[in-house]
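User: I'm putting together a teaching handout on how multi-component assemblies are represented. Below are the sequence lines for each component of a complex, exactly as they appear in our records. Could you produce the 3D structure of the whole assembly as C-alpha cells, so the students can see both representations side by side? Please keep the chain order the same as the input.
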Amino acid sequence: MKKIFSRMGDGSPIEMTESELRRDLEEGTREAALRGKIPALTDDELKYLAEIFTAPYRFLSVERGNEVVLSYDAGTLKIRRVGIAVNRIQALQIYEKLLGADTMELAHVDYSFKPIKPIIGYEQPVLEQALLVTHIPLFYGAMPNLGLYTQPDGPFPNPSELLPQGKIAEARESYEKTVEAAIRDMVYASDAMMESGADGINFDTTGAAGDPDFLATLKAAEILKKKHPDMCIEVGMAGEFVLGMHGDLRYDGVRVAGLYPHDQVKLAEKAGVTIFGPVVNTNTNRSIPWNLSRATTFIKACVEVSHIPIHVNMGMGVGAVTVTDHPPIDIVSRASKAMVEMTRLDGL
Amino acid sequence: MSILEDISQAVVSGDKGKVLELTQKGASEGMDPMTIINQGLVAGMDIVGPRFKNGEMFIPEVLQSAASMHAGMDLLKPHLKGKVLEAKGVVVLGTVEGDRHDIGKNLVGMMLEAGGFKVVNLGVDILAEDFVDAAVEHKAQVIGLSALLTTTMPAMKEVIEILKEEGKRDKVKVIVGGAPVSQKFSDDIGADGYAPDAASAVDLCRKLLPS
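Assistant: Of course. Below is the structure of the complete assembly, with chains in the same order as your input.
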C-alpha cells in the first residue's frame, strides 16, 4: 500500500496511507467547522489538499501569478537568535535584499510595549537610520503582552491569584486596569515611532493574555488611527480563539472573548486596523494534514468576510507549521501553498 | 418560569443574590431541599458545563456560577434535616509534584462538586505517594491529576506505578488533564481517562463511576 510522507504537529515524521490522509483532512475541517460555526472545506478543496500532500516533491510553490506579499514580524530578533551576529539594521537589510521580504519590522529584544515605552527615545534613532538604508515598508512592532501589567511584573493585582480565591470582581477590575495602562503605552510608543517615520506599527501576538489583550489593541488602534489617518496598523494575533480571561469585555457592543478569526477581523476593521494577521494554532498531537485542513477552514472563513488585507501568520506552531525551531521546508511550503491558493489571502 | 428554572438561570448568570433569594423562597414555601438542589442549583451548573466546553462561557463566569451554586447549597444545609447529600463518588484532586498551576484544577474541582461528587483538593506540587495516601484515607474512587508543564507530566505515571506496587490499582481510577496532556499520553501511562476541560472531567467521572 502506498505510503505518504508527512509529519505530526511536533515535526516528527510519519507515513500515512491515502485513507488515513483523507480521514485526517476530513476530521480537521470538521473540527474547525464545528468550533467556528463556519462552513467546512468542500470535497474539491479536500482533494486539492490531498494532492498537495501526495506530491512527491520536497517542497512546493504556488503557480505563477498567485504570488502574495511576504510581511515579517520580529525579524530583527529571529535572525540573531539563530546565531547570525548582525546588528538590527543589517538584519533588516538581509531580510530585504536576500530573503525577499516585502515588509519588515524593527523590533527590540524585550519585545513588549511596556518595557519599550521608557526607552522609546533610544529606538527612534535606530528606526530613522534604518529607513535611510532600506527600501521596503518598515514597521515598528511589539506585543501588547498585558501579562506584564500585573504583579509581580506590574502594578496591578494578579488575577490568576485572585480567581482561585473567588475574588472574581477584583480580578476583573484588575484586568480592566491593565487594559487602560496598556493602551497608554501602546499609543505613546507608536506615536513616537510614527513621528520618526515608521511606515506602520505592528501589534504582535495580540490576544496572548486573553480578551483584555485584544481589547487593549483594538482601542489603541482606534486612537492611533484617529491621530494618524494614513498610518498602517497591522495586528497579528496570538491564537485562533480569544480566551475569556475577563469574560465580559466588549468592543463596539461585541464581546471579544470567544471570537474566532472570522469575527476577530470584523472588530479589527472597525478599529481601523489596516492589515489583519489571523492565527490558527498547531496541535502537536495531530498530523499536519489535519492541522492544515483545520487551519485553511478558519482562514478561508476569515478572508471571505474581510475588507482589509489578510496576512495569515505562518511559522513555528501557527498556520499548520510544525512546532519546531527550524520548521521543515516540506511542511512550510505545503502549508503556504494551500493557504495562498485555497483561501485567496493577501499575504503571509 | 418555575422557581426551579429561575434558580437554574440565576446560577447560570452567576447572580449569587438572586440564587440566595430564590433558594430561600423555595425553602420557605416548603419545597423539598433536595429538589431545589438537584433541579435548581445543580441543573444550572449542568447548563454551565457544556457552555464552557463550547467556548460560550469563560473561567470567571464559571467560577461565579459555581460560587452562587455553593451559596445556595450552604443556605439549604440546615433544611436537609438529616438527609445526606450522597455524593456520586469521591475524587482526590491535585497538581503533580513540581507544578504549581491550579486554576484549571480548581475549576475541575468546582465542576465536580457541582456535579455531585465529593472533592478532596490536595493543592499543588503534590508528591505521587501523597495522592495514593489521600485516596486511601478518603476512600476515593478517582484520583485526578493535573499538570501544566511537559516537565511535570511524568509524575502522573509515578502515581499509577505506586498504585500498582501497593496492589491498589484496580480500586482507584486515575484521570489526567492539563494543557500538555493528551489522550495518547493518558493511554501510554495507563491512566483510565483524559479530560481536555473541566466539563469533560465531570462527564468522564460519571462514565467511570456509573451509579
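A couple of points students might notice: The interface with chain A takes residues 14, 55-61, 63-64, 67, 102-103, 106, 182-184 of chain B (CB under 8 Å). Residues 3-80 of chain B form a domain with the Methyltransferase, Methionine Synthase (B12-binding Domains); Chain A, domain 1 fold (CATH 1.10.1240.10).
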